[in-house]
Amino acid sequence: MKISLLVALACAIAVLLVAAGCTQTVQPPPTPSPVPTTVPTEPPTTVSTPVTTTPIPLPTTTAPAISLPTSIKDTPLLFTISAPNGYAGTTIRATTSEHNILYKTTIFNPAISGANRTINDNSGNYTELSDSLTIFSYSASLSVDQNIRNFIRGSGAVFNESTVTYNGITYIRFDAESDPYSGTPSETVVFVSNKASANEKGYLPVMIYTMTTDGTLSKATYENMVKSFRYYTGRTIGNAPGEETDRPSFYQ
Fold first, then answer.
1. What pLDDT shows up at residue 202?
2. Which CATH number fits domain 70-251: 3.40.1000, 3.30.450, 2.60.40, 1.20.1510?
3. DSSP assignment of 52-111, as one string?
4. What is the pTM for the complete model shown?
5. Which pLDDT does position 143 carry in this prediction?
């Protein structure tokens, strides 16, 4: 009886185990992750920057002034002027259509070849000479200063006109694009003093320089030479420093 009960119990346990195995839940396989879709990216658009073709102007350089250690003096005409090292001065009497006296003083570099011909030209006309400054000393009779200004204004040269005063002498300044006397296309600057600035002997200066193509003096140097020009009285000129201008006897 006991054996039969044990057998029956073992069979019941076996049946339960089989049933439990058949009712076990089957787990579904994991869902695969989706593969990311790659969207093609368009290359960036390159915008070309236009290159300017307008030339950029180079800065203009101005030649500096050189020193003026040489002092030149003309005692009869009561003036002194400063000049570059090695420069000299020559004064001659020139003819003029005006009813007055005219002297021409050339401040020049003696190393310039052929300078004497221009320096000794007593026609009373201005002639270009490289690296030189010409000073015409007119006796202030009649309206000589006004006549010179009128001549320049009517010469056909293109110019700028202004008024400047140096060492008590007032000038009408003409910055001309060409020589108003010869017409050559060389920048020429003319300083015409007025009659009220004449010295005690009655002389008034007209100073002229030209920027020639073969010249070496800068415009700033010429300007300083003009600014250094000054008159003295008959009592003080003897004490003024400077080397006397040469005065050829046959031109006095």
1. 94
2. 3.40.1000
3. P-SPPPPPPP-PPPPP--EEEEETTTTEEEEE-TT-EEEEEEE--SSSS-EEEEEEE-TT
4. 0.75
5. 82
